[in-house]
Amino acid sequence: IILNSMHKYQPRVHIIKKKD
After folding, report:
1. Could you report the per-residue pLDDT of 1-20, keeping only the tens digit for each?
2. pLDDT at residue number 3
3. pLDDT of residue 11
4. CB 6: neighbour CB atoms within 10 A?
5. What is the pLDDT of residue 8?
6. 7: Cβ–Cβ under 8 A, 6 or more apart, which residues?
7. Where is the T-box domain positioned along the sequence (predicted)?
């Protein structure tokens, strides 16, 4: 759920987390 919320506020951060 947190990742989903972050994706809305910071989509770029979500991509970085997925990459890591």
Report:
1. 555 665 566 666 656 666 65
2. 59
3. 62
4. 14
5. 64
6. 14
7. 1-20
Torsion sign, CA atoms 9, 7, 13, 2? positive
12 is written with which tokens?
Answer: 């770029």
pLDDT the model gives residue 18: 63
CB atoms closer than 10 angstroms to residue 17: 12
CA distance 20 to 8: 19
For the packed helices 2-9 and 11-19, what is the interaxial angle rounded to 10 degrees?
130
